[in-house]
Every structure is written in structure tokens, then in C-alpha cells.
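One-letter codes give the sequence; the fold follows as C-alpha cells. An example follows:
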Amino acid sequence: QDNDEHAYETTLAILKKHREINCIYITGAGVAGVCRAICEMGYENRIIVLAFDDIETTRALVRQGVIQVTICQEPLEQGYLAVQMMFEYFMGDKKTIPENHFTDTVIKIKENID
């Protein structure tokens, strides 16, 4: 649903039902909502939270210690290069298969978030 309120309500319900949960992996939006539920339950020191992206909301939660790890990518480069490579393949004179392009993946924690 990629919605903080939905993420909050869902996470809160699941944490109340499954108090044994000790790790949450967030791959999409709703990070603030998930973390709000964790904090409301008083689990911020008990649950390990792994997230994606280097956005200000996530950065603040890493600084606060609610999120322990966020995996940062290069979304603009990834999105642009994929389209650019397809364009060059389909519109170019030579029908050569594009070579792989690797982008950096950076793991950030409280000590290197800034």
C-alpha cells in the first residue's frame, strides 16, 4: 500500500499478535508508519529494523536508533540508465546487447548516516 498510516496500523496489529517478532525488513514506503508502531509498543530497543533508501525520514530514524541499517542505492541512475540502455538498443543501428552496469550499494548505520 506504500502508505504510512496503513503501514502503522498493519504493523501495530501484527506486533500485538506476534510479540516474538525481533526483526522487521522494510522494502518499500511506509517506513515512518512501521517505526511509529514499533515505538508505540516500546520495542525500539528489541526489534532490529532494516530499511532501504537514504531519505530524510529514514535518516532521522537511523539517528534515533529505531532503524539499525538502511541500504542505499542510486535510484536516479538506475532508473535513467535502464531506460537509456533500452533506447540505445532499440533505436541504435547495431543490435548489440547492452553490457551490465553496476551501481554502488551503500550500507548506512548510525555512525555513517551523515
About this structure: The CA atoms of residues 73 and 105 lie 5 Å apart.
